[in-house]
Amino acid sequence: MSHVQLEEHIIRLREELDREREERNFFHHEKDKINTFWEITKSQLEDVRSELRTKEREMEEAEERHQLELKVNFDWRIVIPSRSINKK
Predict the structure, then answer these.
(1) Cβ(35)–Cβ(43) below 8 Å
(2) Could you give the dihedral angle defined by the CA atoms of residues 8, 14, 16 and 18, in that order, rounded to the nearest 10 degrees?
(3) I need a labelling partner for 54 at 20 to 30 A (CA). Which of 8, 31, 35, 62 fits?
(4) Which DSSP state fits 1?
């Protein structure tokens, strides 16, 4: 290789190196964005799951209260008519 050819080859290699560095930086940046998105999404999922557990507990408590109210109302229907019958 002549001196000129070597210089041209060096120029091409440097250009290729620059392109490779730019590409590496681009993909590194993309990887960071994806990781950040993953962490945010993971945190949001944990929050939603926590909210769901809270709502499920609230629903269970509401159902228990409802069943208790039904029992109390049913018990009062039995007690009240029997008092009325005894008074007559």
Answers:
(1) no
(2) -150
(3) 35
(4) -
- Decide: 22 and 14 in contact? Cβ < 8 Å: no
Q: How many CB atoms lie within 10 A of CB 82?
A: 9
3-state DSSP assignment of residue 13: helix
- Tell me how far apart the alpha carbons of residues 40 and 73 are, in angstroms, rounded to a whole number: 49
Total domains in the chain come to 1
Q: Output the pTM of the full model.
A: 0.61
The 3-state DSSP class for residue 88 equals coil
- Domain of 21 in residue numbering reads as 1-88
CA–CA separation, 19 vs 12, rounded Å? 11
Residue matched to tokens 């944990």: 46
pLDDT at 75: 75
Which pLDDT score, from 0 to 100, does residue 73 have? 82
Longest dimension (CA), the chain: 128
